[in-house]
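Take a look at my tokenised protein here and describe the backbone shape.
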Amino acid sequence: MVAYLSLPKHWLFEGKQVLSTVSPSCRGLVYGDGLFETMRVAQGSIPLLSKHLARLWAGLARLRIPPPELEIECFLRHEIRDLDSGVVKLIVMRGEGGRGYLPDPQRPSQLIISLFPSSAPIADSSAEGIAIGISPYFLSSNLLLAGLKHLNRLEQVMCRMALADAGFVEGVVCDAEGFVVEGVSSNLGIWKGGVLETPLLDRAGVAGVARAWALESAPALGYAVRERRIEIEELFAADEVFLCNSLNGFLPVNKINGRATASGPLTGRLHAQWSALFARA
């Protein structure tokens, strides 16, 4: 295995045609009309590629965006086959269109594939944990888009800047009613009495691949799971608090806004199972 010396790399497709530039009238650029996936490469493969693509196809169907014509799995298999580690980002946009919100149903979607070097993780999950903040901004409720990893990320941009101003690399984001939704670029979960609990994402937030994996895997490890509304104060009463996403895995949280949270072994066990997926890739 080798590492690319020329990363990042980018490819743009419309149908199966390779394009050189994104058009100023591309709906992904003009309206944020599209979805994206961010995937971890390990030893020449993407261990959770099928889960990422399944989420992408389901989201495209919800938004009535035509799926890409390119055989993404074959393309990626060829491009990452010699890569020790890295990050792949897929962006699917509705494509070009004139002025106005109504899309042209005859236009094919556009696909951007980007390959980046691996970024440094937020923290080592084997350590004591990370300190995070609480975003001063909330996520709007939107039943139509809840759960989707769509291109409209202005709320996350504002949350991330506010947390950075306060000295945090991540933070808890709530909805307008004060219920916990997720982290800025991660999902959030707690352990309480041996039960893995994570916020419902029926009104806001992104249904992450790592979160879905945890909900599927925890029962096999002997733990019950529950999705429900979670209030901020419950984080401080939990046995453990963690953040998760497809790049960093499962990170224990030891402080929120300077206030200590409990620690325990369960997040580490979950992260060990997750890491094994990439070790045997």
